[in-house]
Design a protein that fits this description.
Layout: E1 17-21, H1 31-45, E2 49-54, E3 67-70, E4 73-76, E5 79-85, H2 90-99, E6 103-106, H3 111-122, E7 127-130, H4 148-160, E8 164-167, H5 170-178, E9 185-187, H6 204-209, E10 218-222, H7 231-243, E11 249-253, H8 259-265, E12 270-273, H9 277-285, E13 289-292, H10 301-308, E14 313-316, E15 331-334, H11 339-351, H12 353-367, H13 372-391
Parallel strand pairs: 1-2, 1-6, 2-3, 6-7, 7-8, 8-9, 10-11, 10-13, 11-12, 13-14, 14-15
Antiparallel strand pairs: 4-5
Helix pairs in contact: 1-13, 7-11, 10-12
């Protein structure tokens, strides 16, 4: 079956009818689904029509932006807070037929997205895939590294069936090219809310409530507490600082299934729990340096928010952060897993307030480059380009 696509070169965004498929649009809060919600909000403001298809739960983490249609799903074994969308039900297919999209956007390589790609291809609809995380790296954190080549092959099959990809950073786009996932790749970066994240949120009184003295240097971490965020590397580097007798405090902001493991591993750390909105912004700005050794990020929302808050950052030299951080100017890019090198970088910041201030100021200046509307326009323009290309076939 072929569907006629009639969007001209000069067509406004109001000509767009987007079916967006997400494995997690709003039931658990993370950087990827917040980016998707911001994108949908931007598209709706431009007059586009958007229909979102994702698993739904009784008590989601936040209200969805736009119209959300539930997908059949199953809880992930051992990670019940996450759900795997399981195909397209008759109800969903009927809804798709009535909505009649002129472009399909898939944001995770799950069973429903596979079916959505097949549905779109059978109707000659353009398909855009956005890449939000490095799924092929996850098995190594669960003693399953031997299956990484298989996961990569499955991802390649999925992404090669799409017309184009958008990746959050040039470093991630290059990885995708090297893995032969696709060769039509645009950059859909990430923005930061500068009204929320800025150095003025720093709150010494709040730190004191946590038992932190004004002259103590706080090494901070904020993210969902899951092993793939590099919790083991973080803990090993903190142990190395202790062996060197480097005075510091550790502040952990966030929650997740690895909370108990992390607490047992770092019994002296301050765990502030899950924070959001202004409370999160206050917590981040009240740190002195961010330490985030994750290698699974495709962009680095955590890194950017810390930079906007005026913090120097110590992060893995990996996809995402490599496109944000200027090494030895706004932070340090450290070889993944290099415990002593991480400790060296942290020690330098702990010992030198002037270095912290200089690199923090440089990071804040860099964060000013990331405007959400300008960034989301890239995706809207990519939709229109793919529609035009299909119309010319």
């Amino acid at each position: 079956m072929s569907v006629a696509l009639s969007v001209s070169h000069d067509a406004p965004y109001s000509a767009l009818r987007i079916a967006l498929f997400s494995g997690n649009y709003n039931y658990v809060r993370d950087g990827a689904n917040q980016a998707l919600n911001r994108l949908v909000g931007y598209l709706l403001r431009q007059g586009a029509q958007v229909r979102v298809y994702s698993p739904v739960v009784d008590e989601p983490a936040f209200a969805p932006t736009g119209d959300l249609i539930g997908l059949p799903s199953l809880a992930v074994p051992g990670r019940a807070e996450y759900r795997v969308p399981m195909g397209l039900s008759r109800k969903v297919r009927r809804d798709l037929a009535v909505f009649a999209p002129n472009v399909v956007h898939v944001s995770s390589p799950d069973p429903s997205a596979h079916r959505a790609v097949s549905w779109a291809r059978s109707r000659n609809l353009p398909i855009l895939a956005s890449v939000h995380t490095r799924f092929e790296t996850y098995p190594r954190y669960y003693n399953l590294a031997f299956i990484e080549p298989l996961v990569e092959a499955l991802l390649r099959r999925f992404y090669r069936r799409c017309d184009a990809l958008v990746a959050p950073s040039e470093s991630m786009a290059q990885v995708l090219r090297e893995q032969r996932m696709n060769y039509d790749i645009d950059i859909w970066s990430r923005g930061v809310d500068r009204d929320l994240f800025h150095p003025g949120r720093r709150d010494l009184a709040w730190r004191r409530e946590l038992g932190v003295a004004d002259d103590e240097v706080v090494v901070g971490f904020f993210s969902r507490l899951v092993m793939e965020k590099g919790l083991d590397v973080f803990s090993d580097a903190i142990d190395e600082l202790k062996r060197r007798d480097i005075a510091h405090r550790v502040l952990i902001v966030g929650d997740g299934p690895a909370r108990e493991w992390f607490g047992n591993r770092l019994p002296d750390a301050i765990f502030a729990g899950f924070q959001s909105g202004e409370n999160l912004a206050r917590a981040v700005a009240s740190m002195d340096v961010l330490f985030f050794p994750s290698i699974t990020e495709t962009f680095g929302n955590v890194t950017l928010e810390a930079m906007a808050s005026g913090l120097p950052v110590v992060v893995a030299a990996a996809t995402g952060s490599e496109s944000l951080v200027y090494d030895n100017r706004s932070g340090r890019l450290i070889r993944p897993g290099a415990i002593r090198e991480y400790a060296d970088a942290l020690q330098a910041y702990i010992a030198d307030p002037a270095l912290r201030a200089a690199h923090g100021a440089a990071g804040e200046a860099r964060a000013r480059d990331f405007s959400w509307d300008r960034i989301n326009q890239v995706v809207a323009d990519t939709y229109l380009r793919l529609i035009r290309q299909h119309a010319q076939r």
